[in-house]
Amino acid sequence: MTLTRPELETVYALSRSDIAHFAQHGFVKLKNVLSAETIAEYEAEITDKVIELNTQEQPLDERDTYGKAFLQVTNLWQDSERVLEFVSSPRLARIAAQLLGVQSVRLYHDQALYKESGGGVTPWHADQYYWPFATDRCVTIWIPLQETPMEMGPLSFAAGSHTFEHGRDLPISDESERVLQDALAEQNFPEISEPYELGEVSYHLGWTFHHAPPNSTDIPRRVMTVIYVDAAMEISPPANANQVLDLASWMPGNQPGETISSPLNPVLY
User: What residues contact residue 80 under an 8 Å CB cut-off, 6+ apart?
Assistant: First the structure.
C-alpha cells in the first residue's frame, strides 16, 4: 500500500452541472481528479510497461496515419500489480457510473496512448465503432500523465456528437478524418479543443467523436485510459471485423446476446 493509494479510493464530488454537461455534450472535463503525487506514483510504472510491451518497431516516418498517431499498449493491468491498482480505482470507476447513470460498471480494458515527439494527428473517430455493445452506456476516461498543452496534442471533442449516427462505420483513418471533419462542421457540432492541467481528466461516451492534433514538442504525450462499461451490458453481434477481434480479445468466452462477464471484465464499482 502506497501513501498515495488512498486517493484512488476516495469519492470525487461530481457536481450536477458536470453530469448535465456529460449528458448534453457526450463528454466532460474534470479538474483535480488526481493529485500530482498520485500521478507521479504510477506514471513511471505505466511508462516502463509501455516501453517493455510496445510492439511498434517501425520508424515514425514509415508508419501509416494510425501508427503515427500514438503508441498503443492495452491491458497493462495484467502485467503489473501497480497498474492494476491504478486501473481498478473505485474513485475513477464511481465517476464513470455516475456519468452513465448506471448502478455498476465493469472494466472493458485499459489502454496506454503515448503520442511520441513528432507523432501525427489522431483522426476523428468514435471508439464504439470497435466495441460490440448493445447500448451506448460505455465511457472512456482519458488521463494525461503530464500537463498537456495544445502543442502536445490533447484530446478534442465534437460537443453533442454522441447523437450523430453518420460516420459510426468508420475506423480511425485518413478517411475518417476527412469525412468527419466536414460532416461534424456541417452539423455545427462545436469542436472543444483545450489543454489539460496536471490532474485534469476527461470522460467521453463511446459514440462521442473526438480527435487530437500532432505532438510538436520534444517529449512524448503520455496518457493512460480506462474504458468502463455498464456492468449489465449485453454483447451485440459484431458489426465489423474489429468488433470480432475485440470480442475475442477483451471478453474471452463471452458470446453475443450474453451479459459481459469474462474474467477480464471485473466489476470496478
Answer: 45, 49
Instruction: Give me the percent of the chain exceeding a pLDDT of 90.
Output: 86
d(CA 129, CA 131): 6
Burial of 64 (0-12, 13-18, 19+ CB in 10 A): exposed
Is position 263 within any domain?
A: no
Q: Decide if 257 is inside a domain.
A: no
Domain count, the chain: 1
Residue 82 DSSP label = H
Predicted structure pTM score: 0.94
Which CATH number fits the domain that encloses residue 63?
2.60.120.620
Which range of residues forms the domain containing residue 184?
Answer: 5-250
Run of H or E including 202: strand 201-205
CA gap 73, 52 in Å, rounded: 10
